[in-house]
Amino acid sequence: MSGKDGRTRRFARAWDDLRGRSGRRIVGLVRGQVAVARAGAELARSTAAGEIERSAARARMAEVEHEGDEARAELVRILRRVLATPIDREDLFRISRSIDDVLDQLRDYVRELDLFGPEDLRFAVEPLQAVIDGLDELEGAVLKMIDAPGSVTMAVLDTRKACSRVRQLYQARLAELFAEPLNMDTLRRRELLSRLDAVGRRLGEAADALADAMLKRSH
Asked: Could you name the domain of life of the organism this protein comes from (predicted)?
């Protein structure tokens, strides 16, 4: 590529930054990463509800994880090239990493239920639905970053409420387990519940990262 071509491309990127196009593209990429995590959560919920066979869900989750890796890689690539971002670049990396962690935990959950999960997985349906609700709220918060930054905090609070719901359900299901005789099925359910609790914690970290970024931007 000639020096002139390189300068032309740099000028085009700078012009896009000034017009806000790069910011909207970044928001779209973060939103896409959230959407992939939601697809993973929906797959896990459908499996717990008995709508998808476990080994098939595990194979599909591998594809979803690959989609998530690609979405994160594209975001990182763009962040290294653009001149201006809607929020601090470091915060965007933190949000992206936390969303990726959500998907990683969901992948491990689906893998473990295929390997040693109990026959009845209905106990996991409600916590996974809370995760889906939280991801929906997070997606809404991400979409408000540019056009309605003042509304992001409320949407983030709704995400945190969904995360609290996951923790409450985890504690309630654990209490039910402790009231039962100790056997291998009990231990298997406890392990899967712990994994779901980890999903909720990672989602909470993504929400906190976005809230911190918006607070920093307002100063």
From this structure: Bacteria
In the block, residue with structure tokens 């406890």: 190
CATH number of 3-218: 1.20.58.220
Query: Tokens representing 185?
Result: 């099925």
Rounded to a whole number of angstroms, the distance between the first and last alpha carbons of the chain is 41
Q: Please state, in angstroms and rounded to a whole number, the distance separating the CA atoms of residues 35 and 42.
A: 10
The span from the CA of 120 to the CA of 50, in Å, is: 9
20-60 pLDDT, tens digit each: 578 888 999 999 999 999 999 999 999 999 999 999 999 99
Structure tokens at 177: 């387990």
CA atoms of 123 and 172, how far apart (whole Å): 10
Contact assessment for residue 20 and residue 145, using Cβ atoms and an 8 Å cutoff = no
What gap in Å lies between CA 150 and CA 152, rounded to an integer?
A: 6
